[in-house]
Design a protein that fits this description.
heterodimer, A: 246 residues, alpha+beta, Alpha-Beta Plaits, 3-stranded antiparallel beta sheet, 10 strands, B: mainly alpha, 79% helix, disordered C terminus, Small basic protein (chain B), cell membrane (chain B), membrane (chain B), DUF1290 (chain B)
């Protein structure tokens, strides 16, 4: 009789324990071992991944198109040569070796003595012209510019904007190691609205005005608005040659 | 009959999944302590039954009382900022292992007794052959 009572009690208690266990397991948050630091971090991560995915997808599409082109030209020397030349043109264009034109903006920076004089900042541009122009160029590249030239010098991946000065003498701005003189004219082909927006947002004109530098930004929305010349300087492979047999 | 508690456990799990009740994560730790207390009571009951000292009223009251007090202790600990639930975890944990050890020993003793008895009975010659 005692054993029977024990069994029934134990059965009832087991049922309750089973229920409690299930509730506990169901209530435990899933994936708690890898906590997400914050929603913002996750969102940023997703956006970065999507951007990377988009770039890689574009790259795959380009490579496939090239593969199709090469396959189609297989066995025919003239077609293959044409395909290779086309490929070279594409590479040249991507590398900035060919002139391009299209909608864009022109920024002209020049000294204007009629602008208000501020003791602290007047004349400062001559000392930081490379930084200021470098900043503008970076902002444009980050906001829709596809090709930029400063005073006719096309900016490519190996380009440099440097302020070179002799001891005590005047400084000279060099782009691609070529000296340039004011007025500095920046031609940029790309998304006009985005480029104008970033320049407005960063108060470029007002900032340069404090240094008595007049900054004129002119949008060219028509198809032949701005022409940016191709890069004509030395290429990275001019001096450095691949070592054969290594 | 021995399978009834196992069936009960399965039934409880089934009910849990069927009703799909969840509790807030904040209260999850209280339920954990309550489950530990419940398991301690269950093993205590099995031990008592094997030692022939089982009392149904003590068992049932112990189950509910221990479960509630354990959860309450954890709650008070949270309110005071002291990890009081650790006391419950240690106390119930130690008791749980003690009970399991005693159950194991009793089970081994019973098995040993059966083994020692069986061969003696098996070799005994029939009464009419003596």
């Amino acid at each position: 009789m005692q054993k029977r009572g024990f069994l029934w009690s134990l059965t009832g208690i087991s049922t309750v324990v089973g229920f409690m266990l299930t509730v506990q397991i169901s209530s435990r948050p899933q994936g708690a071992s890898a906590p997400i630091s914050s929603y913002v971090d996750l969102r940023t991560e997703i956006q970065a991944q999507m951007q990377e995915n988009r770039i890689l997808t574009d790259e795959i599409a380009k490579q496939r198109a090239q593969l199709v082109q090469f396959e189609a030209a297989q066995g025919r020397q003239s077609d293959l040569l044409k395909a290779l030349q086309q490929d070279k043109q594409n590479v040249d264009r991507e590398a900035g070796l060919t002139p391009v034109s299209g909608p864009g903006i022109t920024i002209t920076i020049q000294f204007d003595p009629n602008l208000p004089y501020y003791d602290k900042t007047a004349g400062l541009f001559d000392e930081i012209a490379d930084q200021e122009i470098g900043l503008i160029v970076n902002q444009l590249f980050a906001n829709g510019a596809t090709a930029i030239a400063i005073n006719g010098q096309r900016l490519v991946t190996t380009s440099s904007i440097r302020l070179v000065s002799s001891l005590g003498g005047p400084a000279s701005l060099q782009v691609n190691t070529v000296p340039i003189v004011p007025p500095y004219v920046i031609n940029a082909v790309g998304d006009v609205d985005r480029m104008m927006a970033v320049l407005t947002l960063n108060n470029v004109q007002a900032e340069l005005a404090t240094m008595q530098e007049d900054c004129i930004i002119t949008p060219h929305r028509d198809q032949k608005g701005v022409t940016v010349p191709g890069y004509v300087g030395r290429l990275p492979g001019t001096w450095a040659k691949e070592v054969s047999g290594s | 009959m021995i399978w009834l508690p196992v069936l009960g456990l399965i039934l409880g799990v089934g009910i849990g999944f069927a009703v799909n009740v969840t509790i807030p994560v904040a209260y999850s730790s209280y339920l954990s302590i309550a489950i530990l207390a419940a398991l301690d009571t269950v093993f205590g009951g099995i031990r008592a039954s094997m030692e022939k000292t089982f009392d149904g009223a003590v068992f049932l009251s112990g189950f509910f009382f221990n479960t509630l007090v354990a959860a309450l202790l954890a709650y008070i600990g949270v309110q005071l900022g002291v990890d009081l639930y650790l006391a419950a975890v240690v106390a119930f944990g130690v008791r749980l292992f003690q009970n399991i050890a005693v159950i194991r020993r009793i089970a081994f003793n019973r098995m040993h007794t059966r083994r020692t008895r069986a061969p003696e009975g098996g070799h005994l010659p029939p009464a009419d052959s003596r």
